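Archive transcription. Copying these from loose printouts into the bound notebook so they stop getting lost. Printout 1 of 2:
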Amino acid sequence: MANSSLPTGSTLALQSWAPLTGALTQTLGEFPLGALVKLGCIQESAEEILKAKQNGYTASGVTANFPYIPKISPTGIGYLDSGVAQARNLTFESYTVNANMIRYPVSVPGGDNFTALQAAQIFQSQEFSKKIALDAAMKALVENQTISVMNQLVGWSPTQTNSSIVNNELTINANDTFAYSQFQGFNTVDAVDSTRLIRPASITDDASLTTSHRLTATFLETALANLDRSAYPIEPISFNGQNIYVLFVHPETAFDLQTTVSASALTFTNWELAQIQGNYDMKKEGALNPKTAMGVNVLGLWRNRILIVSTRYVPYGVSNAGAVVTTSRRNVLVGKNAVSFFSPYGALSDATARLMGDAIRNPKAAADAYAPTVRVGVQEIDGNMNTVYDLRCISGFKRIKPSNRPDTNVLVLPTYASL
């Protein structure tokens, strides 16, 4: 859980306040958020980031606008009608993404607060202790953002009536409005459109899912059929020359699938298994690095179209009454630009960073803009000689949901999930 204030004590002046790029880049690759960024499932706006930088927005409560163009109806105009009078108006609409601050202050013992042996073996230098503190805080931050993104994608928004809300192993204090908001990406989680929410056997409530409603091959085929018949198709991800979707399932759901589907059904046609068993190297365009973890387990490619990956961050179900359903999981199929991300500090993806560099015609700008969405400050607590590393991030996530059409590029597939 993020802290909202520094540890108590008499503080000296802030010693430094600088972007932290490399550590974030590395940590992203350890969580599903890194996979979403690399695959192109996260939409960013270089224009909005530059605008925020130019206006000096470094405080909480920043808002960015993301424009979109609604689909034009295919209905034609009569032969004798005036083309000008009956012309379809091309409209430009937009939605907003709010960004707010998360803080992870980490206090490192100093002076007589730890033994000489600990000092010799663990805190060998100030830089080493700083690295330990920031690594721990960075992992907590990226895990927080991963949970936020998954909650946005699946429409996870339980009613805030209980004192606590359980999401995986995380218990959120629902009475703490800020804590609740940060695990929703600081943006309202909209209900998923009915055409983008499909349950087995036409079940209409996550709470009604039973052992008869597990993830099966038949249900996967149902998902594919809904993709193909939609008037607003989900835009696929272009990866390694192939158009695919990514289906995030929970390990309990993955167990159901793997024990009911033959191994031959999950193929890797046209792909080398070694290419996708590992993780995306966040520092290289389109590259995969098998030596780093992604926070997901690649199960296989279904019908050459759906890459199925397992991660524990797939949220529980939510009943129509707003209660958490711990015997179901909201699996989610994701396409391109399914959720928007904004931070006035900079970009998550290297592609957005390059656009920023091109916009201001500064070759170094791309490197400076790449993943500097985290800042770190250093303070010393006088008296007990502790050093506090204050890691901060201003960011926001929002699932793309136009006002006049279904959710963009997501398909939520709740199933029963319990071992």
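Printout 2 of 2:
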Amino acid sequence: MDDLLMPEWIKKIKAENDLELAKSQANSQRLNVLALKIKHEGPEFWRKLLKELDHTTRALSAIGIKGQISISNTKAEQCCRVDVQLQVAFPRMTHVNLFYTPASESIRCYTGDGQASELFFALCPDDVIGLRMEDYSMPVDPEQAAERIVRGMLTAIKSGASSATEL
């Protein structure tokens, strides 16, 4: 129908529908870009996260805390166990198991007391992937993710808890 003959209220509804369609298409494209980035950049993010976890846990000895990571891989999935122990008369310890499947949208996380969570990949403002931690709205890079994971564990053992529930 000719736009000149179309009533204004119908033009307004049509414009709103067109806007919703454009938003939906843009969101779909953004999700496609994110999926491709996760597929291509996820393994490198995981590798950097493991490196940062290793550096961070080794550095804990400077403050009297024992920390280490152990890595095991299968064809389908990669696992990293992070152990942190406070060396006192009655040692306090906790661990976190992280599981990553290449091209997955998240890293699964299990704490020492069996609590489970997922840390989802997301796009950072600079258009690289980051990890969305449960207590932060902005995605973080591997170094920040390692700090938050180990800091949560450190808080848990210092308070006497058996788990790092603040991931």
